[in-house]
Amino acid sequence: MELKKIHISDIGKVVTGKTPRTSIVENYGGNIPFLTPSDDLSYKSVPKTSKTLTEQGLNEVKNCLLPPHSVCVSCIGSDLGKVVMTLEPTITNQQFNSIIPNRQFNTDFVYYLMTLVGKELNYLSKTSTAVPIINKSSFSNYEVEVPDLKKQEKIASILSSLDDKIELNRRINGNLNIAA
Question: Which GO terms describe its molecular function (predicted)?
C-alpha cells in the first residue's frame, strides 16, 4: 500500500475552539452542544455534552462552529490525545483542535488516524512540558502518512464495523447492569 506523507493541515481546516464568556449567563443553556474535556470522550461520536450554548453564546464564537463529521482532538492536559467526532454542529472549548476534513479524506479514517496521532502527541507532550499541551501550529504541522481515498474507505469500513460491535456490546452490558 502506497502512503503519502502530509501535514494534518492538508487533511482539512484546523479549528481551535473557544469559550464564550462565562460571566454572561445568557450564553449557556441552549441547544448547541459545547464540548469540553470534562465530557465523556470514550466514544467515537460526541456524546450528549454537559454544557450547551444559546444562539447568543454561539455568536460570541461563531467562527468556531464545527459541522457534523468534524474530528476533535483534545490538545492539553491529562486528556491530551483523546478524539471524538461530531454528529451535529458543535462548539468546542480552546482545549481542542478540530479538523473539518476536505473531500479527499474519509471522515471515519481521519478519526482513526487521529486516535493514533493523539497517543503519539500525548507521549511527546509529556516529555517536554509540565502541563502537556500541543498548540494549533504544532498540531497542524504534524506529519502523517495516508493512503488514497479508496484505501481510506476500506480501512474505515473495517474499523467502523468493529466499533459498531463494541458499542452494541456496551449497550447490552448497560442493559444487563440495569436489569441486575
Answer: endonuclease activity
